[in-house]
Amino acid sequence: MKIIGIETSCDECSVAVVEDGKRVLSNVVATQLDIHRPFNGVVPEIASRTHTEWIWPVVMRAIADAGIQKSDIDGVAVTNRPGLVGSLLVGLSFAKGFAYAISRPLIAVDHILAHIYAAHLEHEIAYPYLGLIASGGHTIISRMDDFDAITVLGTTIDDACGEAFDKVAKHYGFGYPGGLAIDKLARMGNRGAYNFPDPSLHKGEHTYDVSYSGLKTAVINQLHQFKNDEGDTRPEDIAASFEKAAIDMLMKRVSKALRDEGLQRLVAGGGVAANTYLREIAGSLPGVQIYFPSLKLCTDNGAMVAGIGYHYLRNNLSSSRSVNAYSRVDDFKKSYP
């Protein structure tokens, strides 16, 4: 069963063809990084207009790279939530028309579930496990009992992890995208140069939750209050100390959730899952099997959408042509009649 997956939730225009939820036949990613670089962040209007220009040639390239014809496609999977509504609508509208034109079912996919599924494209992973999504828009710790059976245990109460990386990088001029720029700088810095605080949350109510707004404020506005010595202020040390605080905060909650849920497998996804320090710390968890997608599957891509789309279609689940796009998803409701 061959599924074409369309991903336009933010600034990546990506289309892939995946066979039987596992074998990636093609995965085309048209990035808008250079377009948004002058703004040090994604401009939603520019993103959606660019998707409109790129979506058709990217789809045609994905089909050609897969070595198939449109008639070989068994289903059309597309991200419809969460994300930038303008960008989502471009992909969703195209997917509706394309599915209708080739007389194939439409499968609307949740972006969060697709990111968690990304590691399944490259690894055999048994359920249940603890799922970690860390990206520019989301930070979620969850229990996964099946490909779409998710129980959210913890999330951010304000900024997402990747968002904090981007804003710190933007403030200090480290580069764009911020996560990659900080990762590179941090490898040359001293993680102990600054002792940034872990937020104080009400433990009973927010056992697995994280908060990045305070950390972001400390790094940007109160930097010298947390310096451990009188040495020079080096960009590398700021990046390394911030990265350590941001990842350590997340991994403390992940470790506790693994213990409390009695789970021995951790699956990560999202842009921050490409972070070198996160992979290092996760890999040191005793007695835990760790699964990360390859770097190309951490960022937004059509392969993860097509991959999870296969499982919906295999279970005879498809979406109505009236399905809409949503900027947020709070309850992971199904998009199937």
| Approximate helicity band | 25-40%
Distance between the termini: 22 Å
Strand order of the largest sheet: 3-2-1-4-5
Global mean pLDDT: 95
Q: In sequence order, what are the helices and strands, one letter per element?
A: EEEHHEHEHEEEHHHHEHEHH
CATH superfamily of the largest domain: ATPase, nucleotide binding domain
Nearest-angstrom radius of gyration?
Answer: 20 Å
What is the total tally of β strands?
10
Q: Extract low-pLDDT stretches.
A: none
Structural class by sheet pairing and helices: alpha/beta
Strand content: 15-25%
Number of helices: 11
CATH architecture heading of the largest domain = 2-Layer Sandwich
Count of the domains: 2
Q: What shape does the CA trace take? A: globular
Summarize the main sheet: 5 strands, mixed
CATH topology of the largest domain: Nucleotidyltransferase, domain 5
CATH class of the largest domain: Alpha Beta
Would you give an account of this structure?
The protein is of the alpha/beta class and about 325 residues long. It folds into two domains: about 1-115 and about 300-315, Nucleotidyltransferase, domain 5 (2-Layer Sandwich), CATH 3.30.420.40; about 125-290, 2-Layer Sandwich (Nucleotidyltransferase, domain 5), CATH 3.30.420. Helices cover about 40% and strands about 20% of the residues. The chain contains eleven helices and ten strands. It has helices spanning about 35, 45-65, 85-100, 110-115, 160-170, 180-185, 215-220, 235-260, 275-285, 295-300, 300-315, and strands at about 1-5, 10-20, 25-30, 75-80, 105-110, 130-135, 140-145, 150-155, 265-270, 290. The protein has a five-stranded mixed β-sheet with strand order 3-2-1-4-5, with helices on both faces. A five-stranded mixed β-sheet has the order 8-7-6-9-10, with helices on both faces. Helix 9 links the parallel strand 9 (about 265-270) and strand 10. The longest helix is centred in the last third of the chain and has 27 residues, at about 235-260. It is globular. The two termini are about 20 Å apart.
